[in-house]
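ping. complex inputs:
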Amino acid sequence: MSQRLERTIFPSKRDPDFCARIIHKAGSNINLCWHCNCCSGGCPFSQAMDYLPNQVIRMTQLGMKHEVLACSAIWICVGCHTCSVQCPMAIDMAAFMDALRQVAIAEDVPVSEPDIFNFHKEVLNSIRRHGRTHKLEIMFRYKLQKRDWLKDLDVGLKMMAKRKLDLMPSKIRNIKAVSKMFEDPKGNAAT
Amino acid sequence: MTHTVYSYFPGCSLATSARENNESMVTFLGAFGIRLEELVDWNCCGSSSAHSLDSELALDLACRNLSLAPQNRPLLVACPSCYLRLKGAHNSLDQDVAAQEHYENKWNRSHHSDLQIVHFFELLHAISQTAAFQNKLKKLAGLRIAPYYGCMLAYPPSLSRQKDFSGIMENVIGALGGTAIRWPFSARCCGTFLTAARPDIVSPIINQITQGAIQAGADCIVTACAMCHLNLEIRSDKPNQLPVFHFSEMLALALDLEISDTWFSRHLIDPRPLLTRKKLL
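pong. complex structure:
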């Protein structure tokens, strides 16, 4: 922690427009944050993050674009809104994290949590193909990339035995209507 | 309750891996004269992944479902996460003229601002206030239950004025004779999708939740969300584990409704020994 705080900030490397861009994209004004730390204190996942949620806000305010877009915190945040409920300024942290993730993808920043990113992509692929999520297929394709078949094999087999994982997907009829959403020219990350 | 028929959005989990949640809820509502009409050809609400990677795609996915909803009755959603996606999309259409125009062009349908999107708990609350419900036998007597809401009580700021469901499971458990224990982890997020990519983060959290329930003296945990149910069942690596019920299953048990053999056989932590011991099966 102390090491993190001691990292030097180089003003010359800051992006002066970054914060305004993120605020616009997120639709939530993070400049209202007074760094009371409620979000970071309440976050169930902060221990797994490289920067605490309010530190990500602070770095964004300071225009530290590269550090923010490359950090793990933006991928580990699940958007549970625990922080937003406690935030005295009603900042929408989940929308803020969504915006950062999407800018990171659009700008091809190396993703610090590739497993999480790949999992999201497989979920979206499944929706594109079937209109709904097919858990077995998502996990199969995710594992195909990750190549760690043995990890969680026991959980998967137990779920199969209990018939919690359907072999066949639940598909919608008008699959075109859904797959077309993925083709719309808006730079989505899944394709 | 002014409606007896609701449109119904089950969502992917209730339609597949948590079918027992779906069936027990339909059974419960049926017992109180409420019929559900599943949205024809509904699609995934987008889940966590769509809004994580592409906000416009997330809005489109949710909006197609809204476009399928008949105007003359409310839309019931049982999954807290789907509920937030659909409710959030409906709000966006209300407030954002451009989004509304996009919606109306895309689905060739006008936006119906007064479509009610109702979470199952809202309906449950209304049912639990009726005399028919209050006069039921106190079948859960002697059962100590840890109510687990996960993140469902936490809304984003844009939805902060929605109905708050804190305490509803406690009240209903009490009305049915059971004891709802007080414990520190009832609103601790379960980790949701991180369970797939980062189980190393989720396991300690789930252990804290399930062991917390044991320390508080619970016989079992009840969940409001199918995702939480799955995580509580698969991610605890401690030897002592508590059975976890979908809240709708507990309702069906307490009200002596017809229990399907396939509900509890699908649980990864078998709840039947506990139910037999407590004479609930």
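The first strand of chain B starts at residue 5 and ends at 9.
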